[in-house]
Amino acid sequence: MNRFADLLRATGLLGARMSGASTMKTFVICLLLLAFDALAADALAADAQYQLDAGDVITIRVFGEEDLTFEQLQLTNAGTFSFPFLGEIRAGGKTAAELEAILVAGLKGDYLVDPKVSISILEYRQFFVNGEVNSPGGYRFQPGLTLRKAVALAGGFTERASKTKITIIHEGDPDRMPVRASLDSPIKPGDIITIEQSFF
């Protein structure tokens, strides 16, 4: 409620006399702004837990150091990248915050007195959809992705698709075993989704 009041104050509408239509319009605008705030917070929370790996594209900013700033840097197949002064850095399996700490520790002292490093995820690595979808292939992962949304990205089901015979091989599974999934199953980066045929 405080955030709602803040929005009204910012627009000069708290305590102002308005018609019913104006009040409703203002109410809807504020609700939309609050929804966008919630979505942004969810995205930040997802990024904080997201573990980097091969194929992810990141942005690295070292404040005040243009030579150490990279707007677009893709991790290699080994989940690494090369960084000035520090050489090959292993990013695979680490969060953006953990990677920031590694760069700060490496740069501090010999190279910079008090390095300020910021890392953000520009593009997530792909997941893959094959089988009975209209456009099988690899697609960039998005936080909050479900199997239903993944199928939509892949052009939807074909006429022969089974909506119950669906399996996922998770990237982190060393045995690469397919597991049964539903349309509401969460999708992770690197997952391989297979949609089987339906036999009538």
- What fraction strand? 25-35%
- What is the mean predicted local confidence, pLDDT? 84
Q: Summarize the main sheet.
A: 5 strands, mixed
Q: What structural category arises from helix and sheet content?
A: alpha+beta
Task: Please identify, by name, the CATH architecture of the largest domain.
Answer: Roll
Question: Strands across the major sheet, in which order?
Answer: 7-6-10-8-9
Number of domains: 3
Number of strands: 10
Index terms:
3 domains; 200 residues; wza like fold; Outer membrane lipoprotein wza fold like; three-stranded antiparallel sheet; 4 helices; 29% helix; alpha+beta; 10 strands; five-stranded mixed sheet
Question: Can you walk through the features of this model?
Answer:
The protein is α+β, with helices and mostly antiparallel strands and about 200 residues long. It has three domains: about 50 residues; about 70 residues, wza like fold, CATH 3.30.1950; about 70 residues, Outer membrane lipoprotein wza fold like (Roll), CATH 3.10.560. Helices cover about 30% and strands about 25% of the residues. The strands form three sheets. Strands 7-6-10-8-9 form a five-stranded mixed beta sheet, with helices on one face. A hairpin with a 5-residue loop joins strand 6 and strand 7. Helix 1 crosses helix 2. It is elongated. About 5% of the residues have low confidence.
